[in-house]
Amino acid sequence: MGVSERWYRNLETGMRVPLSTEVLERLSQALLLGPDERMALYGHALAGAGGQSDEDEGPPDFMDELAVLASAQTEFPSYLTDRAWNVLDHNAAMAHWFPWVREPGANLMRWALTTATAREQIVDWPRHAVQYLALLRFALVTRPDDEDLTALRDAVLDAPVCRGLWDRSPKVLAYRHGHRYELRLPHVSPETITVTSQVLLPAYRQELRYVLLLPTEGSPHGHGP
């Protein structure tokens, strides 16, 4: 990496060391990091170094406009979550597909990883659980002092199956944008529904996520033959 022995010793003992973008790039290359791992490294190393804070909320009515967008009457389920996957708003289609979003304190990550319903409704649940845990790990790396995320991690890892998956895979994942998966929702369709998640980040509040679940062609509720 082209750093001194003293620099490396300071890093190992927990002292602050200069982490310029050039140093981070050399580290990323040395460790053969993928795109999500690079994002996690940069987010952890540069957190608080002039980045946009959660308190910078943009225009005064910004959150109201996001809520209108999330609850818009479309044929596809959509929802809005915060950095800890708390559901802030959703549309009628989302509530029809997943009635749990109406519950006080609804949390997408907690539902997906800790409930028997999710394990029944998400086809090949263990594979997707690894990805949800990778999303949570990424959030914790980039926001290590966030109490909501820490509490969510503790609640999720209380489930032995999640603890086992967490310990076996150190993967990090920034977003599930464009991810395709299958759902069993007999109250919506007698057939398995294949959807693709589209994740949009508001410009002023990129810790928020606006997500659309788009059924694929040929799937029930999808377009095409």
UniProtKB/TrEMBL annotation:
This is MmyB-like transcription regulator ligand binding domain-containing protein. Coiled coil: none annotated. Residues 71-220 form the MmyB-like transcription regulator ligand binding domain. It comes from Streptomyces afghaniensis 772. InterPro entries: Cro/C1-type_HTH, MLTR_LBD. It comes from the Bacteria.
